[in-house]
Specification:
Blueprint: E1 5-10, E2 18-20, E3 44-48, E4 55-57, E5 63-65, H1 67-76, E6 83-91, E7 98-105, E8 118-119, E9 126-128, E10 130-132, H2 133-136, E11 141-142, E12 151-154, H3 155-163, E13 170-178, H4 182-185
Parallel strand pairs: 3-6, 10-13
Antiparallel strand pairs: 1-12, 1-13, 2-3, 4-5, 5-7, 6-7, 8-9, 11-12
C-alpha cells in the first residue's frame, strides 16, 4: 500500500554528518516555523561526525538543503510565500567548505483531520496524525505543528528525491490521509479509517493512564 504523503526526518545513518552550531549561538533554535530567522548572515555551521548529504540536520534544530535539493524543492513548491531558503556557510577540514540553504517555513499549515487525529492524554501532540485530503490536495512540501522537528512531502517529491539519488540520510515515514479519492485508492494509495487510540482499548488500574 502506498501513501500520498511522508514525514521527512533524519535516519541516523553513520555516514551522515550533523551540522554543528557555533558555541554560545543565539537564538536557539536556529529557526522556528512562523518566526522570522535572526542573525542568519552571521551563522557559520560545522560539519561533524560524518559526510555531506543533500539534506542535513543541525544540532540547532534546523534543516539545511544542498543547492541541488533546493532546486528540486523549488520545482515542486506550489506556494512561494510558504518556504524561504537562507544561504549559510558550512565548514569542514576533511571535506572542504560548502554553501547550504536553511529551510524555513513562514507559517504553520492547517493540514490535519481534527476528528481522526488522536492525541495522547494530557498532550498537545498527536499519537496518530491524520491529514485531510481536502486541505493538502495540491501541496507538495509543507509543515504541520504535529511534527515540529520535521516537515512533510508528497509521494511525488519523495520519488523525485530517490530518483535523483538525494535520499541518503533521509527517513521517509508514511503519514495517513483521510478522504483520499476512489481513483487514487484504485492506484493503491491508502485512505485512513477511524480507529480507537490504543490506550482506549486497554484497562488501567484506578482509571489512570500513567
Amino acid at each position: 500500500m502506498k501513501h500520498l504523503y511522508y514525514n521527512v526526518g533524519y535516519n541516523e545513518d553513520k555516514k551522515v554528518g550533523i551540522l554543528g552550531m557555533p558555541e554560545g549561538w543565539k537564538p536557539f533554535p536556529i529557526e522556528k516555523s512562523g518566526v522570522p530567522v535572526e542573525n542568519i548572515d552571521r551563522l557559520v555551521l560545522t560539519l561533524k561526525y560524518g559526510e555531506y548529504t543533500d539534506l542535513m540536520v543541525s544540532d540547532g534544530c534546523a534543516y539545511a538543503v544542498s543547492p541541488r535539493l533546493k532546486e528540486l524543492f523549488e520545482r515542486y513548491v506550489t506556494d512561494s510565500t510558504l518556504i524561504e531558503f537562507y544561504p549559510v556557510k558550512v565548514v569542514s577540514e576533511k571535506y572542504g567548505d560548502r554553501t547550504y540553504h536553511l529551510l524555513h517555513f513562514t507559517r504553520w499549515c492547517d493540514v490535519r483531520n481534527e476528528k481522526m487525529t488522536c492525541f495522547m492524554p494530557r498532550s498537545k501532540y498527536p499519537a496518530r496524525m491524520v491529514l485531510d485530503y481536502e486541505k493538502v490536495n495540491g501541496m507538495s512540501i509543507f509543515n504541520s505543528d504535529s511534527y515540529r522537528m520535521s516537515f512533510l512531502v508528497s509521494d511525488e517529491v519523495r520519488r523525485a528525491i530517490r530518483r535523483e539519488k538525494m535520499h541518503v540520510g533521509i527517513a521517509f515515514d508514511p503519514v495517513e490521509c483521510s478522504g483520499v479519492p476512489e481513483e487514487l485508492q484504485k492506484k493503491d494509495y491508502a485512505c485512513a479509517k477511524p480507529h480507537k487510540p490504543i490506550w482506549k482499548c486497554l484497562s488501567f488500574p484506578n482509571g489512570k493512564i500513567w
